[in-house]
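Teaching assistant here, posting this on the class forum so everyone can see the example we discussed in section. The complex has two components, and the goal was to see what a joint structure prediction looks like when all of them are supplied at once.
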Amino acid sequence: MWQELRAELYPKLEIVTVALDARGATAARPWIEKAEPQHPSLIDEAHVLDRLGVVNVPTGIWIDESGTIVRPPETAYPRRPSFKDREVPADATPIERERIELTRKLNVDAERYVAALRDWVAKGPSSRYALSPDEVVRRSRPRPVEEATADAHFALGHELHTMGERDLAIEHFREAQRLHPTNWTYRRDAWAIAGPDYATIYGTTWLDDVKREGAENYYPRLEL
Amino acid sequence: MIFRSSRVSAAELERATGWELKPEGLCHGERCVRFAVRSPDAIDLADVAQALGMPLVVEPRAGLRALGPEAGGKALATAVLPDIELPDLEGRMFRLSSFRGQKVLLVAWASW
């Protein structure tokens, strides 16, 4: 997905992709091999990046030459995703129709995001999009005790899943979702592990959850 | 951060959390939190959790414990990127600090 932009901006900018997949390389491999990326493509089974404030994908973080974050996590699409323009087929079921209409409403502003990225790559610290360290911290997500506890439950869920303790893992994944309901990486990765029965196991669906939280909150509005 | 015992050595604690046991307490970079310990080979995780404001979740049925990140502040306490180390598809480990000297766009994505 990022190859084209990487080809344009490398070596002034390196792109490093990180797959938040508790199932590890098994889940991420087909996608990475198909993309044949020239850039490093890493795997984050335990969602270490969530600790920086990542709650959904795709999310971008800008890091300057000194290892300082100059933009905290924010929604990052390299181009306008096809779901923004998808038409509802005439034979769509009511649920398909609802899903297509809802995904069209998600906040994605790829054009502005990529323009800002190009500006930073060209101008460095004098780019208006490169934020000061104080502003990066100010804009980063608050971490109340519930969300910090959700992190520990997700880590336990992942570890238990790896150990083959399926039922115990589900208990902790559920608790992570309850404590941090707006972290979509916890939900969707646990659902992917659960497979087709995920709605029965977790008692909800993506559509139900997006409707509950509000489509406008799925991806926070880009504040450049 | 997963632990298999209620007590850890100072070295293990530092490896897992980045917090180092020093005479002045537990330190991370320039920040130190007062912390008294009887034996650096057997630090009680519950004491660490309390001192650092990190939630500790215990799963007795599997003998596991998980320490969450510090609560109450921001996800980014500073703008300095923590030195995260992650594998690629072949299991080769990459430290994000190895990209110093270059601008980096770090992109989180997923197969799901």
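For the discussion questions: Chain A touches chain B through 85 residues (CB under 8 Å). The mean pLDDT of chain A is 96. Think about how each of these relates to the inputs above.
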